[in-house]
Write a structure and sequence with these properties.
Aminopeptidase; 3 domains
């Protein structure tokens, strides 16, 4: 069940061991889990001439609203060529592609020049501190001095017009999760005090919503759209080639660009109110009410600065702001053997493809590894049409069996190509 990943981790370890690979179950902090939390670790040994590659996925999922699903979200139903269920894309489907690619590589007669490490962790959806972050802190030896890592965050996008784009995530916006709390005198709701917690919170949130962030194009986003320009519709090519200038000088393009939420999120720090906490009964004034804010900050912004702005904006008696999660954005280079390996496979499989260094509006566990010097990239070879990933974190999440099969074949090709590209 969600949050109790240990049985799934044990199952994956068993598959690896039955294939003759080194594998281990790594228990991680339990938290509120009733069954237990754990990561699956496995390794295909190579010759050791090159530093290892890590294939990273995560086993946890977000909760579901089962009433909105057409199928049992945890049954893994196969229907009409698709696997339907929570985690099909995010990220149990990633784990399946990476695991089966590793088993396919293990069947090859010629060993790779490097070890390939399989790592499937819990807790990514909650920030990863008790999953990938904990493993980096407490069990770094499992990484065996790895230089490269592949995880979620990118894939192949078919566009209605223009060439397909192989989007390889090299960096991402950083999270700044805040909790705004308002306190007031508890008591019977028939006698309001005028300083009650819920009205105080509502006033604070009204002030918070007045925060405005200017449009700004950071270098990594400028590079992303410049690379994307040749594969874009003709109306946008020139504007994408110099996004900063176009947003500043072309009002019609600016309006059209910012009307697309996925684009707008890459040129602003964004905020979403996601959780409200208040009283438990209609006739009781709670002593405390709170709201959670999910802010995503562009590279160069810091959570401490953002939290200071929020505190200044909502400053009032009984109101406080605390930080729940934050980390800085980090980036991986595009002039690297692994990035070149993806580009080389893209050219072979689809000569018209454009390989794009993507900036993710969301975050993944990649940052834990970038912070210790590993070149981490978000790329899983899966092919999607625009809008096809809508089921991620929503109802009826699914992935096609063809996508899974094609992803396994392509990932094997990328890993083998890395040996040819990495001559250091």
């Amino acid at each position: 069940m969600p949050g109790d990943e240990a049985p799934l981790a044990a199952y994956l370890v068993g598959l690896l061991q039955r294939a003759g690979l080194e594998a281990a179950l790594v228990e991680t902090p339990r938290g509120a889990s009733r069954v237990g939390r754990a990561a699956a670790w496995g390794m295909l040994r190579g010759t050791g001439e090159r530093p290892p590659l890590v294939l990273l996925s995560h086993l946890d999922t977000v909760p579901v609203d089962a009433e909105r699903w057409h199928e049992d979200p945890f049954a893994g139903i196969e229907r009409d060529g698709y696997v339907i269920g929570r985690g099909a894309q995010d990220a149990k489907g990633v784990a399946v592609i990476q695991l089966l690619a590793l088993l396919e590589l293990a069947r090859r007669e010629q060993p790779l020049a490097r070890d390939v490490i399989f790592l499937a962790t819990p807790d990514e959806e909650s920030g990863g501190r008790n999953g990938a972050g904990w493993l980096v802190r407490e069990h770094r030896s499992l990484l065996r001095g790895a230089r490269f890592l592949l995880t979620e965050g990118g894939g192949v996008l078919h566009r209605p017009r223009g060439a397909p784009t192989w989007q390889v995530a090299v960096t991402e916006k950083s999270p700044c999760w805040l909790r705004i709390t308002a306190k007031g005198p508890p008591g019977h709701s028939s006698v309001p005090s005028g300083a009650d917690a819920v009205p105080r919170l509502l006033d604070a949130l009204a002030a918070f919503r007045q925060l405005k962030d200017d449009v700004r194009v950071v270098p990594s986003v400028q590079r992303m759209f410049a690379t994307l320009a040749p594969a874009s519709p003709a109306a946008d090519r020139r504007a994408f080639a110099d996004l900063r200038r176009s947003l500043a000088r072309d009002p019609a393009f600016r309006q059209r660009f910012l009307a697309q939420p996925a684009y707008a999120a890459l040129v602003r720090d964004t905020t979403s109110l996601t959780v409200l906490e208040g009283g438990a009964r209609t006739n009781v004034l709670p002593a405390e009410a709170a709201a959670h804010v999910d802010a995503r900050l562009l590279p160069g912004s810091t959570c401490s600065d953002f939290a200071t702005r929020v505190r200044q904006r909502v400053r009032a008696p009984g109101v406080a702001v605390e930080t729940l999660l934050s980390f800085r954005s980090a980036a991986s280079p595009i002039d690297s053997p692994l990035y070149r390996a993806v580009a080389s496979v893209a050219q072979r499989r689809d000569p018209a493809a454009v390989v794009v260094p993507r900036v993710n509006a969301g975050f993944t566990d990649a940052h834990w590894f970038r912070e210790i010097g590993i070149e981490a990239y978000g790329f899983v070879p899966r092919w999607h049409e625009l809008g096809e990933s809508r089921g991620v974190h929503g109802p009826n999440e699914r992935i096609s069996i063809e996508n899974l099969e094609r992803g396994i074949e392509t990932l094997v090709e990328i890993v083998e190509e890395l040996d040819r590209q990495d001559t250091t």
